[in-house]
Design a protein that fits this description.
The complex is a heterodimer of chains A (94) and B (232).
Chain A (H helix, E strand, L loop, with lengths): L2 E8 L6 H14 L15 E6 L6 H15 L5 E9 L8
Antiparallel strand pairs in A: 1-2, 1-3
Chain B lengths: L1 E6 L6 H11 L2 E6 L10 E4 L19 H11 L4 E4 L1 H8 L6 E3 L7 E9 L14 E9 L3 E3 L2 H9 L3 E6 L10 E5 L5 E4 L26 H14 L1
Parallel strand pairs in B: 1-2, 1-3, 3-4, 4-11
Antiparallel strand pairs in B: 5-8, 6-7, 6-9, 9-10, 10-11
Classes of the chains: A alpha+beta (94), B alpha/beta (232).
GO cellular component, one term (chain A): cytoplasm
GO molecular function, one term (chain A): ATP binding
Pathway (chain A): Purine metabolism; IMP biosynthesis via de novo pathway; 5-amino-1-(5-phospho-D-ribosyl)imidazole from N(2)-formyl-N(1)-(5-phospho-D-ribosyl)glycinamide: step 1/2
């Protein structure tokens, strides 16, 4: 089943408290796991997987683009950073 | 005067808002998110809570509720609408108010009595305050940090549309200490703090006079009632 993936991130210029909290935890892990010592930041966003019947044609993609800009994201605080099509929802058994 | 309070799945403060309306001297009318009917009310309150568990974004799914079609129409025709906390988030998501709300900058839910300065005393919900009145009402939210683009912020400041500003320290990282804003017409107001929890002596914030005696929140509701009387 074709799946349209929409990725949304908090705007780069805004503070992302969720990412900051995760980065803080990684920083603590970095004190004991040297491979993590060079982590400088984390930002947390959202990934939507929209399954559709039939083909992901131009009209469907345009409709999803519109949905991404108006519903799945809020342009005051977020940016849509990617839209792409994959064959099935992530993790689905083929 | 009849003031509607819309209950959404996950609303918490609808009963308190209705009680505040009655204490202020108007009739409270319970409205349901799934209806397309405002039951002929004269004003509206979108109450606080965690509609749809804050899924997607706080207030985002509720802003797409059936009743929001009527709420948006009524607001655009000048009906007074007050959004408190989650209601404020819904009003920004519905594009009735500028800006947006994100997680508090220190990453914590905040619940405390909060000082505010009322900087706009011409909106339908703040006309009963003296200019620059300083009040205390409860603040309780996890996503109360007000954000807007530099251009939007300039317009809001330039047009005097900042209704309330935090005083005594910015609790959540809101730009320009903004706690509440109004639209250009002054009928739609959004507030992160909760006036409906400071309307009855014995149950409000502490004051210098007595414990729990703060009723500063009542003025938001008496303001809209007075405005309606003037309009008649």
């Amino acid at each position: 089943m074709p799946t349209i993936v929409v990725e949304v991130m908090p705007k780069a210029e805004l503070l992302d408290p969720q990412g900051k909290a995760v980065a803080g935890a990684l920083g603590r892990l970095g004190q004991t796991q040297s491979a993590l010592a060079n982590v400088t930041g984390v930002r947390v966003g959202k990934r939507f997987e929209i399954s559709i019947d039939g083909e992901a044609d131009a009209a469907t993609l345009a409709a999803v683009r519109e949905l991404a800009d108006t519903v799945l994201s809020n342009s005051v605080i977020e940016d849509v950073v990617g839209i792409h099509v994959q064959d099935a929802p992530s993790g689905a058994v083929a | 005067m009849r003031i509607g309070v819309v209950t959404f799945p996950g609303s918490l403060d609808d009963r308190d808002a209705a009680r505040a309306i009655r204490l202020a001297g108007a009739d409270a009318v319970a409205l349901w998110h799934g209806d397309h009917d405002l039951h002929g009310v004269d004003a509206l309150v979108l109450p606080g809570g965690f509609s749809y568990g804050d899924y997607l974004r706080a207030g985002a799914i509720a802003s797409l509720s059936p009743i929001m079609t009527e709420v948006i129409d009524a607001a655009n025709q000048g009906m007074p609408v007050l959004g408190i906390c989650n209601g404020f988030q819904m009003l920004t998501e519905a594009h009735l108010l500028d800006g947006g709300l994100i997680r508090n900058d220190q990453g914590r839910f905040i619940c405390r009595d909060q000082g505010l300065r009322i900087e706009n005393t011409t909106s339908d919900w703040t006309s009963g305050f003296a200019a620059d009145a300083e009040i205390v009402i409860p603040l309780k939210n996890g996503e109360g940090s007000f954000m807007a683009s530099a251009e939007t912020l300039k317009v809001l400041e330039g047009e005097g549309r900042i209704v309330a500003r935090y005083i005594g320290g910015n609790p959540n990282g809101s730009l320009n200490d903004i706690a509440g804003v109004t639209n250009a017409r002054g009928n739609v107001v959004g507030l992160m703090p909760h006036p409906e929890h400071a309307v009855e002596a014995g149950f409000g914030p502490d004051t210098d006079d007595a414990m729990a005696s703060g009723i500063d929140g009542l003025v938001f509701f008496t303001s809209v009632i007075a405005q309606a009387l003037i309009a008649r």
